[in-house]
Design a protein that fits this description.
The structure holds 2 protein chains of 2 kinds.
Chain A: H1 2-13, H2 17-30, H3 33-43, H4 54-65, H5 69-79, H6 82-89, H7 101-110, H8 116-128, H9 132-143, H10 152-162, H11 167-174, H12 185-189, E1 205-206, E2 208-209, E3 223-229, E4 232-239, E5 242-247, H13 258-266, E6 271-281, E7 284-285, H14 288-292, H15 302-307, E8 310-320, E9 323-324, H16 330-343, E10 349-351, E11 354-355, H17 361-368, E12 375-382, E13 390-391, E14 396-400, E15 404-415, E16 424-433, E17 436-443, H18 449-462, E18 470-472, E19 478-483, E20 485-488, E21 496-499, E22 502-506, H19 518-522
Parallel strand pairs in A: 1-13, 2-14, 8-10
Antiparallel strand pairs in A: 3-11, 3-12, 4-5, 4-6, 6-7, 6-8, 8-9, 12-14, 15-16, 15-18, 15-19, 16-17, 19-22, 20-21
Helix pairs in contact in A: 1-2, 2-10, 5-6, 6-9, 10-11
Chain B: E1 2-5, E2 8-11, E3 16-18, E4 26-28, E5 43-47, H1 51-57, E6 64-67, E7 72-75, E8 78-84, E9 92-98, E10 101-105, E11 127-132, H2 144-160, E12 164-168, H3 174-181, E13 188-191, H4 192-203, E14 212-214, E15 227-230, E16 246-251, H5 258-264, E17 268-270, H6 278-288, E18 292-298, H7 300-309, E19 314-316, H8 324-330
Parallel strand pairs in B: 3-4, 4-5, 5-6, 10-11, 11-18, 12-15, 12-16, 13-14, 13-15, 16-17, 18-19
Antiparallel strand pairs in B: 1-2, 2-3, 7-8, 8-9, 9-10
The chains are: A alpha+beta, B alpha/beta.
Chain lengths: 526, 331
């Protein structure tokens, strides 16, 4: 595992993309084929099921070190990662067991049928025979969650560079449902398995936020204008009478939306459609909180289907009758998409409406009104644009409505995890509720490093609670919180839930007397 | 015998302060770091090796008396002596004896022998004042040999890749350790602020490896693929980018934790500290056999609670030594 540990260490400590690419390159040269495959699997989310729960791991670590549990918790709060905390508090290893990543993975998978005592023996043995970094990686391997220092995009770029291939080809090759043991690394990267896979989605084409004046875009007639919807972006694939639905997170969600799946099975033609899954009731799009009720369910009850019926708004056509259409123009793709819908009329699937206007000025009021139909803004797609892999500047723009904002006061702070564990980065905010304060949102982002340091200093000075990870602070610092939507919620103390709350800015000009009242905030819900 | 006053730690019968943070008549100073040796005292007493540091940092005309380790003087009937703390050059624990009672204020200390400062000596006492900068069980340092090996390997790897190894470390203590660790691996260049403190080492007879002095304002192409050591203040500065093909490393105890390494976003982080690690703190405190332990700067709440749980009477004390920010720069 040494080569893998060296790689992780390198990826983890530098933030220079070039050094990361170099480190991956070195690993690809040094590691054996199975290890490379595991590397890919772990970083693209194809990890085996967790066989040892974290409570047990924590318990064993406490047992080995003999420290009290509260001290373990304090250490955990300072480190921000359980696997790392355990790796650090254990006594130094006295021996070293050199196994390949694959050998470790095979042993970890084999734990599935072990008794708890056998699991414990295995884990304690490993801890006792690995230096800190490898011990940490081992804990991560046990846990399954593996997000360390490299995005899948960087990884794809590194692979593409190493094999001198096109990044989008590699993306296509490694996406999808391949299994360990059924493929070899080189063949997988080079796309030897892609043809046989009916389910394979394409990478989505994404838009950049609009950063220029509308008039600079040229003739309004050159653009296809649509509403931007706040649901789940999906890819709807039908090939050889089989239907697959992929979410943008590269998850196969076919069976979560049976009403769509069953209709598509009846459709004529072979195709890949890009569209949005939304809850639509009486021809009105519901906001995201309604759709959330449909997500991550093991079974979809009849009641749920009736209460939160979903529909698809189709944006684009990526493949038609086995041909990749991504290199054709938006105009051609849209025409074929319309033809496909004409061929298969059904109440659950619709074309995304094209907004026709004569001049750019008219678009402004349309955007202003978008929120009233639960749309999050406007999409602008050039009629000659190709269907790109990822983001490409200039062809597709999103012009979102301005977020809603409130002023709230910081009341709890917690140290972040991972990179952010040295400072208080996770905040809870409150607004006024008569004479009292009521929590309204948690937010993790939006401040600069410098501001985070300043807030951390404030938290250190004004902490009312000393133990555990959460610090209660004097309600003094006021922040403007931006969010995309608001809905009633009985899970939140305040009675409302905000969608995508984040810190817009630190209002150093305001005091706690200036924050918003919850009753006023509720009036934002329509 | 000890009192924790607004001005600093006070020795009642001796009528003097130890590392005070407000101006007083008589200050006994444990070591030359800025949060322990402050400006404005009428008289200073410290180890001989700390004298040139105080003079260079506070002022050439201060009233300062130097003492050797184990040499004792009497101040208002209190027998005062200095004992090696192993933190940096000249760093001392202050031992105070009065009517048979012994108190020790240790300042900052480490138990590892860095080969530059006199190694830590443990002293039996009734009351002991200890820091707790790294008072969590996640902190334990590799041996000095292992640390040196890691740094050397990193430099060699950088050289293979045509890169210049830039180390960021506090100019008093850490920089000299890095120099010593990398002697003979590649030519050493140090920022002039570090060179100034190197002189303090050399003036008291500590032998440092040969080094060149650089000024980042000037042309520095000659350092390419060599080793450069700069103080933390320059880590995020623009001038540092004048160093050709830079790969940078931070040397600090905080680098033990991934989160801190990534936050600082250097290319490498080495957990090397001039403070004691968890086990070091515990070993030292146990060896004093003190009846009462006072815990100052660092993980005060957690460490105090733990000591009390294992049967060592401990109390948390508020001081102004090194807040979190500064320590990130210094340790």
């Amino acid at each position: 595992m040494r080569a893998f540990a060296t790689l992780i260490n390198a990826l983890d400590s530098t933030n220079k993309t070039n050094l990361k690419l170099e480190a991956i390159d070195r690993f690809l040269l040094e590691a054996d084929n199975d290890d490379k495959l595991w590397f890919l699997a772990l970083f693209t989310g194809k990890r085996p099921k967790r066989n040892i729960n974290t409570t047990l791991m924590k318990q064993w670590a406490i047992e080995v070190t003999g420290i009290p549990e509260w001290l373990f918790q304090e250490s955990y709060a300072a480190v921000g990662d359980l696997g790392e905390t355990i790796a650090l508090i254990l006594p130094q290893a006295h021996h070293y067991v050199d196994r390949t990543l694959t050998a470790w993975m095979n042993r970890i998978i084999a734990l599935k049928d072990s008794t708890e005592a056998e699991k414990k023996e295995f884990v304690l043995q490993a801890w006792n025979n690995l230096p800190t970094t490898e011990r940490f990686i081992f804990n991560k391997l046990l846990g399954g969650s593996f997000r360390l220092g490299v995005s899948s995009k960087t990884l794809i770029n590194a692979l593409a560079r190493h094999y001198q291939m096109d990044a989008s080809t590699v993306t296509h090759s490694v996406m999808g449902d391949w299994k360990m043991g059924e493929v070899t690394f080189e063949n997988l990267i080079k796309g030897h398995y892609t043809d046989t896979q009916l389910s394979k989605p394409y990478p989505f084409c994404l838009a950049y936020p609009l950063e220029k004046d509308l008039n600079e875009l040229g003739d309004v007639k050159d653009w296809q204008i649509e509403y931007k919807w706040d649901g789940i972006r999906g890819q709807f694939i039908k090939r050889d009478n089989e239907v697959f639905i992929w979410s943008r997170g590269e998850e196969l969600v076919t069976d979560q939306f049976p009403e769509i799946r069953d209709i598509l099975r009846q459709w004529q033609g072979n195709f890949v459609i890009d569209g949005e899954i939304l809850v639509v009731k009486e021809q009105e799009v519901m906001n995201f909180s309604a759709l959330q009720k449909r997500l991550n369910r093991k079974t979809i009850s009849k009641k749920l289907l009736e209460e939160f019926p979903v529909q698809v708004y189709a944006y684009d056509l990526m493949e038609w009758e086995g041909d990749d259409w991504r290199q054709k123009s938006m105009l051609e793709r849209r025409q074929q998409l319309e033809a496909l819908f004409f061929l298969n009329p059904s109440p659950h699937l619709h074309l995304s409406k094209v907004i026709t206007i004569d001049h750019w000025e008219a678009l402004k009021s349309i955007r202003e009104n978008a929120r009233s139909i639960n749309s999050e803004g406007i999409m602008l797609k050039h009629k000659v644009s190709l269907y790109h892999t990822g983001r490409k500047k200039g062809d597709w723009w999103k012009w979102k409505i301005d977020p809603l904002t409130i002023d709230a006061v910081l009341i709890y702070a917690q140290k972040g995890s991972g990179r952010r564990s040295a400072y208080y980065t996770d905040y809870t905010f409150a607004v006024r509720h008569g004479e009292h304060l009521v929590t309204i949102a948690k937010a993790y982002s939006g401040l600069t490093d410098k501001e985070i340091k300043e807030v951390s200093r404030f938290v250190n000075k004004n902490a009312l609670e000393k133990f555990g990870p959460v610090r209660t602070v004097k309600p003094e610092l006021v922040f403007e919180i931006a969010f995309e939507g608001i809905a009633f919620s009985n899970r939140h103390k305040s009675g409302v839930a905000l969608r995508f709350p984040r810190i817009a800015r630190w209002r150093t000009d305001k005091t706690v007397a200036d924050i918003d009242d919850i009753e006023e905030i509720k009036k934002m819900i329509h | 015998m000890l009192q924790f006053r607004q001005e600093g730690i006070y020795c009642i019968p001796g009528n003097f302060f130890i590392d005070p943070w407000q101006p007083v008549d008589f200050a006994v100073v444990t070591h030359g770091h800025a949060d322990h040796a402050r400006w404005g005292m009428k008289n200073y007493l410290c180890h001989h090796f700390t004298v040139p540091i105080l003079k260079s940092r506070i002022g050439i005309d201060i009233s300062v008396q130097g003492l050797s380790y184990h040499e004792s003087i009497h101040i208002n009937g209190v027998k005062v002596s200095l004992h090696p703390a192993g933190h940096i050059i000249g760093s001392a624990q202050i031992r105070m004896e009065y009517k048979g009672k012994v108190c020790v204020v240790s300042g900052d200390y480490k138990t590892q022998n860095d080969g530059l400062s006199a190694p830590f000596e443990s002293i039996k006492c009734h009351e002991f004042v200890s820091e707790s900068t790294f008072g969590l069980p996640i902190y334990h340092w590799l041996s000095v040999e292992q640390q040196n090996q890691h740094m050397q390997n990193w430099v060699l790897q950088n050289q293979t890749n045509g890169k210049t190894s830039v180390f960021i470390g506090y100019s008093l203590g850490k920089a000299q350790r890095i120099m010593k660790a990398l002697v003979g691996i590649a030519p050493l260049h140090v920022h002039y602020s570090i060179a100034k403190l190197n002189q303090a080492y050399e003036s008291v007879g500590v032998k440092l490896p040969p080094y060149n002095i650089i000024n980042l304002q000037e042309d520095i192409k000659q350092v390419d693929t060599h080793i450069v050591i700069v103080p933390p203040a320059l880590a995020d500065s623009k001038v540092i980018h004048k160093i050709p093909h830079m790969a940078n490393a931070i040397c600090s105890g905080w680098m033990q934790v991934r989160g801190s390494r990534r936050w600082r976003s250097a290319d490498a982080g080495f957990a090397i500290s001039d403070h004691a690690d968890w086990q070091g703190l515990l070993d030292v405190i146990k060896a004093t056999e003190a009846e009462k332990v006072y815990i100052t700067h660092g993980q005060t709440a957690v460490f105090t609670k733990y000591l009390n749980e294992i049967g060592i009477l401990a109390e948390e004390v508020r001081t102004v030594f090194g807040n979190e920010e500064e320590e990130l720069e210094k340790t």
